[in-house]
Amino acid sequence: MNHPLRLVLVLHNHQPVGNFDGVFEQAYQDSYLPFLDVFERYEQLQIGLHTSGSLMEWLDANHPEYVDRLAAFVANGRIEILGGAYFEPILAMIPSRDRVGQITAYTEWLQQRLGATIRGMWVPERVWEQSMASDLVHANIEYTLLDDFHFKNAGLNEEQLHGYYVTEDNTNVLKVLPGSEPMRYMIPFQQPEESINYLRQIAESHPGAVVVFGDDGEKFGTWPGTKEHVYDRGWLAQFFDALVTNDDWLKVTTPSEAIGSVPPLGKLYIPEGSYREMTEWALPAAKINEYEDIHHDLEQQGQWQRISPFVRGGFWRNFKVKYPETNEMYSRMQMVSGRLQEVVRQGGGGELIDQARLELYRGQCNCGFWHGAFGGTYLPHLRNAIYNHLIAADNLLDQAEGRGWQADQQSWVELDADDYNLDGRPEIRLANKRLMTLIAPVEGGQLYELDVKSICHNLQATLTRRSESYHRKVLQGPSSAEGDVASIHDRVVFKQEGLNERLGCDSWKRNSLVDHFYPPDVSPTNVASGEATEQGDFVHGAYEAKLRRSKDRMQLQLVREGNVLGHPLKITKGVTLNADEAVLEIAYLLENLPPNVPVHFAPEFNFAGLPSGADDRYFRDAEGNSLGQLGNQLDLADTNHLGLVDQWLGIDVGLAFDRATSVWTYAVETVSQSEGGFELVHQSVAVVPHWHVVADANGCWSVTMRLALDTQLAEQRMVEAAAVASV
After folding, report:
1. pTM tops 0.90
2. pLDDT at 482 > cutoff 80
3. What angle do CA 265, 266, 267 make, to 5 degrees?
4. What domains lie within the chain, and their CATH numbers?
5. Digit-coded pLDDT (tens) for 679-725
6. Are 252 and 704 in contact (CB under 8 A)?
7. If you ran DSSP here, which 8-state letter would residue 391 be given?
8. 10 Å Cβ neighbour count for 123?
9. Residues designated as active site
10. Under 8 Å CB-to-CB from 7, ≥6 apart: which residues?
11. Which listed site, 399, 408, 663, 713, has its alpha carbon 20 to 30 Å from 499?
């Protein structure tokens, strides 16, 4: 083996912050544990392993024996541990200070727990921008892995990728290894001989080459069908057997060994990008379909291989445009990061600040910020988790200032304006020790964030139904792959029937205080489907904001002069918050109403994180009587109160009206794709009070609503848990 081919196998194991405990456990039993069991038998093999901090913390708490085994493998040189940003953020999404902070914090953890020397790191989702090289070097990282797609975008061809390169930013030099896409698609979906034959061809034409496989560890057992394929039918053992059998020309090794034994192929500056599929998913839905059609046509003509090296998809940051909900999470994260930085700049420190930083880092986990072949943005529990940790970080900063939500903290209420969602226009923040709201005057005066601080929950973490490129597959129906197990990128599986009939699409964001005017005879079914005709121009219309402040009471007043069926109409809506109260007072005044002509006014509310399908999550009347589960469609008349109870979360959302009110409710559900196939996902509960408004003698009409957020149940549990912990 004077000039062996070096095969660098790097596994990336990850579960997102906020994923269900059962999912962690299943992935452990199906992937992480059995892989280690098989690998242990092959003493001559070495691999690289990256485990995200969110998963590693869970493993250390629930299966410390597994982490102990990793430490033993590290000690005997069989596993090289790759570091990374602690909680797997997209590096392009977070400030430079947080990139360095996350990487160095995780390096310290891995050194202390595993005894690992961290030289390299995994770039989350391989989202790369060249300026990151400086941050990685400043965090004491020597090398990283990116996909070969990145290198091809820089102009290299397949024959130039059998090694590694150095890159540089502002004199900071970093080594970068290209991960092989052919290997990524062969392993574990094709027979081991296919990989061996592919590697042999490279070894014969490029003596001393380095080939890198870097991909998700979950494809070895967790991805659909892979547990049986990889372990029960023995694919992994057969693959390792093949590697050992060919050790006369094939050396399976670690990234550091390869870098230390082989000089770089050269220097390269790498364009921004990610793995190929991610760049496609970042495109608008219509463009994805257009891209796929062109790809198919050129492939049929035999032209795709010639043109594909020059084809690039979208820019990862545009997920924040494609999904405004992603931008709202991102902007909220930046608010917290900026606030923490300011506290530190002014000399703040100590345990509360350290805890706030860790909560911020958890709230930067990438998985809820994008969507492709995985649920991502469409998974409510991931979005809820992001907000949970960001609100927790804010709470800790409040507590450090003596302004926490607890009863013994000082009383306060604030009202201010700033460009909080980074769209170049001001939004309004209305907050006290119990609640924090964000309202967008220029977007219909809609309330788009409502944080209940005691339970770290954003009731506006909703998602709008929109057209996705894969919806045409939903309309075509399911298909199944015969024979070998298929990659998740190729599967078309339906987890429920009738999804083709549930492809609703909304023309507005699923926020609250969305001011609709519907036809008098509109049906609740049309409203729920998003197909009801809009007769006014208030949903997306810009409102003028006026801020009114007093010592213990703040009010935002929003005014718009618009039209309903061509008739001029003025709406004034006020949102008032008192110090210490978890109550929003919402008042509407409609002026210049047409005489003797009723208009059908329906301000919509949406509440997220209150899922349907359980008896302890239900609607209630003023007396506390259950009106059915939160997924039910209600059509109430002449009511003055409606409550939404989630006993698991420990919250009671009460909406009271000062005049008799009709109310519609329905579940907002999306059809989205995940690893397991296409599925229906509950996103929010829509509550739509509505009136056939008749003007008084002055052409006016008004209503006042009281939105009260009661978390006594959750707070009592906290007290009980603290008492148990202190024993």
Report:
1. yes
2. no
3. 145
4. 5-273 (3.20.110.20), 492-717 (2.70.98.10)
5. 999 999 999 999 999 999 999 999 999 999 999 999 999 999 988 88
6. no
7. H
8. 25
9. 125, 216
10. 199, 211, 213, 243, 250, 251, 252, 253
11. 663
